[in-house]
Amino acid sequence: MPAMPGGRSMLSDGRVIGRPLDRVACQACGYAGHAHALGMDDLAAFYDDDYDLSLQDEQAAQARGAFYLGQIETLLDTWRAARVLEFGCGSGAFLDMLNRKWGCERATGTELAAQLAHRASQREGLEVVQGASERHDGQGAYDLCLSINVIEHAQDPLPFLLSARRAIKADGRVLVICPNGDAPSQELLFIDHVSSFSAKSLVQLARQAGLAWEKGYPLPGNADFQAHLFRPAQVSVEPLPPEPVTVSEREHYLRSWIGLEESVRARLAQAGQGPRYAVFGCGELSQLLNCYAPALLYGAECFVLDRPAFDTYLGKPVRASDAPDLPRVLLVAVHRAGAATVAARLRERGFHPILLEI
C-alpha cells in the first residue's frame, strides 16, 4: 500500500510523531499491518505518561461507553457475565458502567498506559492491573473477557487472544470490538494501530488461539467498527466469515489522503471566495489533517463550532458558528457518517461547505 508522505504519523490520542506510516496488507485474508514491525519498546513509548485518549473528553467517553454497552448486550442476548475481565480498560469508565449495571461479582481491567491505569484504579469496585494485556494471566477465572478498540493496538494480536482464551472458564466467552477493516477508514492512519482486521482475518487468528467464532457483524449505527463473539473452540461449530476487503480499497483510501491537499485547493479555487476559509470541527479528523495535510490547517483562519467550549485548538482560535465576519467557506472536518448532514445545515445558514473526499 502507498506510504504516507512527510515522514511523520499520528497516535490515536492526536500526538504527531516523527515516524513514517507505511502499511502492507494480505490479499487472501484482508489483514493489514505495518511494513516495519513495531516492538514493545515502541508501544511503551507511545503509551507513556502523556497518553490520555480516554481522559480528553470524559462526557464523550461516557456516551461511547453507553453505545458499546448496548451493542454488547445485544450481541450477548440474555446471557450476562458475573466475572468480567476487560483488556485495555483505559480510564475504567466503561468497565465501571458495566459493573454498575450488571452487578458483577468481579470486574477486572488491564491497562498499559500508567496515567489511565491510575485513573481506573480510583473507581470503586474495579481491580486494575497495569501492564500489557497479552501478559496477563487470568487463570480461567472469568466468564467474559472483552476488549473495545484495543486488539488493533497489540504488538502481536495472537498472544493477546491466547491470553483472553486462558482467562475464561470452559464455558466462557471472548468479545472483541475493533475497527472494521472491511470498511477502510481513519484507523489506517494511526501509527499505534498495529493491525487492521477484516472479519476473516480476525476469525482465522482467533482459531489459532483456540477460539471459535459464534457471531459478529459491523456495528449498527457505526459500520466503521465491528463486534465478534467467540467461545472456546471445542464448544461450538465455526461458520465461515465473509470475504475480506480487497487491498485496492485500502490503497484507494490512503491515496485519497495523499492527494487531499491538492483536491481541496482546487475546490477552494472553484469556490471563488479568495483565500479565506475555516475548518468546521475540532476532533479526530482535524487532528489527522494536522498530521497528514498540515498545509490545509496552516491556511485556515480558525476552527468553527456551534457551541465552542474552548478558545483555541491546534494553535488556532475557535469561533462560534454565529460569530460575525466568519469565512464563508468551511472545510467540514467531521466523521463521514454525519458529514453530509452537517454540510446541508451549514449551507442553509449561508456557508459554502467543502466535504473532504476521503
From TrEMBL:
The UniProt record lists the keyword Transferase: yes
CDD domains per UniProt: AdoMet_MTases
UniProt-listed InterPro entries: SAM-dependent_MTases_sf
Pfam families assigned to the protein according to its UniProt record, in alphabetical order: Methyltransf_23 (PF13489)
GO molecular function: transferase activity
UniProt keyword annotations, A-Z: Transferase
PANTHER family for the chain: TRANS-ACONITATE 2-METHYLTRANSFERASE-RELATED
Listed name of the protein: UDP-N-acetyl-D-mannosamine transferase
Taxon lineage: unclassified sequences, metagenomes, organismal metagenomes
